[in-house]
């Protein structure tokens, strides 16, 4: 399931409680696109709940989407205990002109504060 919430007008929050598959990623991209229809630049908070994983196909598709739309993102916060996901995000964002930070699940409040500014 995908739950969404707004932290501020330009900030979208996404909580994923299932494995992040290509199908789930399409839903996420749809939610982000809706926000981009209203705001030129947005911040994105993504939380992948405990013991959830991302498929390789979804990971690469998500990276492609980020690169294709980098000019529309100001900050991205990724909250997960998946070290593989965190490392992939950190590596893929080396060349983006977007502030991207990863947080452990226990630090979600810190992530919410950071993304809301």
UniProtKB/TrEMBL annotation:
It comes from the Bacteria. InterPro entries: SpoIIAA-like, SpoIIAA-like_sf, STAS_dom_sf. This is STAS/SEC14 domain-containing protein. Gene3D superfamilies: SpoIIaa-like domains (3.40.50.10600). It comes from Christiangramia aestuarii.
């Amino acid at each position: 399931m995908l739950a969404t919430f707004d932290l501020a007008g330009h900030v979208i929050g996404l909580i994923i409680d299932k494995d992040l598959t290509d199908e789930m990623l399409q839903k996420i991209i749809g939610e982000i696109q809706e926000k981009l229809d209203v705001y030129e630049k947005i911040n994105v908070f993504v939380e992948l709940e405990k013991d959830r994983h991302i498929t390789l196909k979804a990971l690469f598709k998500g990276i492609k989407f980020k690169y294709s739309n980098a000019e529309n993102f100001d900050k991205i916060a990724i909250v997960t205990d998946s070290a593989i996901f965190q490392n992939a995000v950190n590596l893929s964002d080396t060349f983006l002109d977007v502030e991207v930070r990863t947080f452990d699940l226990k630090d979600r409040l810190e992530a919410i504060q950071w993304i809301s500014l």
